[in-house]
């Protein structure tokens, strides 16, 4: 395979959700796996609903996931290309004006359905005379423009679905240009894909029917060029099977970030859910990309459960080495000689990254110890060895305490943990004790 060029083309009309991120990740990881290029293209020709604020928010969400585009485009800056393509289609006789109102079209569809016919546009506009078109114009009607589909079956080999086909005769000629002259999604998308030399279009299976239309547009506008290769993946739905929507904010990337989930956990779950691959934690998108295969994607809907995300976030944090998180720790002012050993000690006990602050306070600050058995703790304090301490200190000290007090198991260890950390559970005390240090340990055991 030559180096592919892929794109993610969101409409900046809201915050992207986990389903949108899945499309972006599939394209980005495909580019990574095959040493290709990834373009971010904002399909912002819906001027009423698109905004620069939403576009910037999408870039922020993608960057948080680790997705860095090789190029960024905005369709609002490329309208001249679409107008030229429309003129070419008019010259070919494949783009024609229609004057029906929405109400007229709806009545016609209902009549067709009542007669047992499919509600396909009947191309009545093609039978209008010049005088009839002039009369509509005189009424103040402005045409919308439809692309005239060629009859017959459109076939392609889908990288996920396999050999696929759509009978174009069963489709209405799609509207490409609205009455106000603005473009719908279909034409700008094809024009951009041609201009950007997009080699693979990887998207949700809700676009399968669009493929037949777009392949005919590719043939009309670039007859000498090969059309892109298509791959339509299963859709991500909520845990209850509900669809996801940018408008409702359902499972938005922004909300997942604010809830403290790890970006790599979100990326891994969004990518691996609904595939034959086991869901597992990764240390980088590059690692995820090495095993990414479109052929592993299932045909069944993929259910995304935030409960799984919590588990995967915990597992992801446990994988990280200190260098993976050093800058994030510094942002929390966790610095100095204790930072790295604390991370190694605590990473397996974190539900969210910021939980590390709890253990930083345990080793670096004053805490409220929990002393259940003052007499036992004072006996243990008297046996504290002199410093320097290392990870063998805990075992040596508790062995002496066991011999002196006769305690063992939970009766030995639990009161010491409560006093030294103020928590019922947590990282191994063999690693924490040297970080706490003798002075703090003695004060917490004795209350002094």
From TrEMBL:
What are the entry keywords? Aminoacyl-tRNA synthetase, ATP-binding, Cytoplasm, Ligase, Nucleotide-binding, Protein biosynthesis
The short sequence motif called 'HIGH' region sits at 10-20
- Tell me which InterPro entries the record gives: aa-tRNA-synth_I_cd-bd (IPR045462), aa-tRNA-synth_I_codon-bd_sub2 (IPR020751), aa-tRNA-synth_I_CS (IPR001412), aa_tRNA-synth_I_cd-bd_sf (IPR008925), Glu-tRNA-ligase_bac/mito (IPR004527), Glu/Gln-tRNA-synth (IPR000924), Glu/Gln-tRNA-synth_Ib_cat-dom (IPR020058), GluQ/Sye (IPR049940)
Q: Name one GO molecular function term.
A: glutamate-tRNA ligase activity
Q: Which residues bind ATP?
A: 246
> Kinase among the record's keywords?
no
Enzyme Commission number(s) from the entry = 6.1.1.17
Q: What does this protein do?
A: Catalyzes the attachment of glutamate to tRNA(Glu) in a two-step reaction: glutamate is first activated by ATP to form Glu-AMP and then transferred to the acceptor end of tRNA(Glu).
**HAMAP family (UniProt xref):** Glu_tRNA_synth_type1 (MF_00022)
Subunit arrangement?
Monomer.
What's the name of the protein? Glutamate--tRNA ligase
Organism this protein belongs to = Methylocystis borbori
């Amino acid at each position: 395979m030559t180096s592919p060029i892929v794109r993610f083309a969101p409409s900046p009309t809201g915050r992207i959700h986990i389903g949108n991120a899945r499309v972006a990740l599939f394209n980005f990881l495909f580019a990574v796996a095959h040493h290709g290029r990834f373009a971010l293209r904002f399909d912002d020709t819906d001027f009423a609903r698109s905004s620069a604020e939403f576009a910037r928010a999408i870039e922020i969400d993608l960057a948080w996931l680790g997705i860095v585009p090789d190029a960024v485009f905005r369709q609002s800056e490329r309208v001249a290309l679409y107008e030229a393509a429309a003129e070419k289609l008019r010259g070919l006789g494949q783009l024609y004006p229609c004057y029906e109102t929405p109400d007229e079209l709806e009545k016609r569809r209902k009549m067709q359905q009542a007669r047992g016919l499919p509600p396909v546009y009947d191309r009545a506009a093609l039978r209008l005379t010049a005088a009839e078109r002039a009369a509509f114009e005189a009424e103040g009607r402005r045409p919308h423009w439809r692309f005239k589909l060629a009859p017959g079956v459109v076939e392609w080999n889908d990288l996920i679905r396999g050999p696929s086909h759509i009978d174009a005769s069963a489709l209405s000629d799609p509207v490409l240009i609205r009455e106000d002259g603005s473009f719908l999604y279909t034409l700008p998308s094809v024009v951009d894909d041609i201009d950007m030399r997009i080699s693979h279009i990887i998207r949700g299976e809700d676009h399968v029917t669009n493929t037949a239309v777009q392949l005919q547009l590719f043939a009309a506008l670039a007859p000498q060029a090969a059309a892109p290769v298509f791959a339509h993946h299963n859709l991500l739905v909520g845990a209850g099977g509900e669809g996801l929507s940018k408008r409702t904010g359902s499972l938005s990337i922004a909300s997942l970030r604010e809830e403290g989930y790890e970006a790599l956990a979100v990326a891994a779950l969004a990518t691996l859910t609904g595939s034959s691959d086991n869901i597992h934690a990764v240390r980088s998108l590059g690692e995820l990309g090495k095993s990414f295969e479109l052929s592993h994607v299932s045909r069944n809907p993929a259910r995304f459960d935030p409960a799984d995300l919590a588990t995967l976030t915990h597992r992801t944090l446990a994988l990280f080495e200190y260098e993976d998180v050093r800058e994030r720790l510094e942002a929390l002012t966790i610095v100095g000689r204790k930072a790295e050993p604390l991370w190694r000690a605590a990473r397996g006990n974190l539900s969210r990254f910021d939980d590390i602050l709890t253990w930083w306070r345990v080793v670096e600050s004053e805490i409220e110890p929990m002393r259940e058995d003052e007499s036992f703790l004072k006996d243990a304090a008297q046996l504290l060895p002199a410093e320097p301490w290392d990870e063998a200190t805990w075992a040596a000290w508790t062995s002496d305490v066991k011999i002196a007090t006769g305690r063992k198991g939970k009766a030995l260890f639990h009161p010491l943990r409560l006093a030294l950390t103020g928590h019922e559970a947590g990282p191994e005390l063999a690693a924490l004790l040297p970080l706490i240090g003798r002075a703090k340990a003695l004060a917490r055991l004795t209350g002094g």
